[in-house]
Each structure stands twice: as C-alpha cells, then as structure tokens.
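Here is an idea for our session: we take a single protein and study its fold together. To get us started, please write out a protein record for me. Start from the sequence, derive the backbone structure tokens from it, and show both lines together. Go ahead whenever you are ready, and we will take it from there:
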Amino acid sequence: MGYGSGMARSKAFDVDAAVDKAMEVFWANGFGSTTPQQLVDALGIGRGSLYNAFDSKHALYERALRRYYERETVRLIEVLDGPGPARERLRAALELVVDAAREDRRGCMMANAAVEFGAADEVVNHLVRRTFERQEAAFRSTIEEGQRSGEIDPAADARALASFLLTTINGIRVLAKADPDPRRLADLAGTALRAI
C-alpha cells in the first residue's frame, strides 16, 4: 500500500507531517513511555492507519529520530559550516544550543535515546552514534579551520577539543532539563569557548 496511491489518501494523511508530530511526542516522553494511543491522538489517525503507514511503534520512532537529526543537528552543522571566523562560529553554535535548551527543556532527543536504550537497540544506537559523530566532525572541522587561520592554538588536539564540545553541548541540554537558568547555561558555554 503506497502512501501516494490516491489523491484522497495523500490529502487525508500526510506522512511527513505525521512523522513531525510523532517526533514531538517521542521527544517529550521517550519511546517506552509513549503509548500507541498518544500517537494516535497526536497524529489524528486511527490505530490501524498508524500501523499500516509505519508498521510498528519502533519503526515510527526510528523515523522520528531521523527527522530530529534532519531538523536539529543540521541547524547546528549549518552554523558551524557557515561564513565568518571559526571562533565566532563556535560561539554561535554554543549559543544556539543554550538558547534551545533554555526554551525547550526536553533535552536532546538523541541523548535521551542513548540514555533510554544504551547499546541494547542496534538501530537506535546507530542513529545516535551517527548523529554524535556528525556533530563532532563539524566541531573538529571548524576547530581545524581556526587552527589554520591562527585563531586557535595549532598545537591543540582538534579531535579532543571537538569531543569536549560535543560533551559540553549534551551536558548543557541535560542540565537545562532540571535547571534552565540562562546565566548558568551561558557560563558553561563561555567556559567551553575559553578552553579552546
């Protein structure tokens, strides 16, 4: 049964919009605490339609994680890959994370998935690792640009600094779930930037 098998079907059920809505539910509740009824209510479709479209709750969760990557991780990478001095792009990326963490206390959906599943789910673990690796690679590339331009100490270990920034942004997101004090979050970001 294809998604676009008829004009009425495509108007009645927008798969991309459904994945967006499911992402919001999973992001707020986690996989285990999200019930099929919550998904049905959020997507505005029947349970049968939910499973016909996505096969299983887990398959929908995988698509929601991929959507999160496309929406949230790509925003961070675009800042890091953008124009301007490397140090300013690093600052802008940290500010983006602080602002998002302060406004939305759900944390990082990928970090939440890592905590919920660990290495127990191969597909989820792969998606989480891929996301973190891509973020770290973007940090490393920007740091290396800064080293070439003289903004960042060329003797510093760019890989270690990138890992440090990856850990910092995830720490900020986790901390904000319990204490979204903007000064504290900004201080963490500022301290991380000064360490580079």
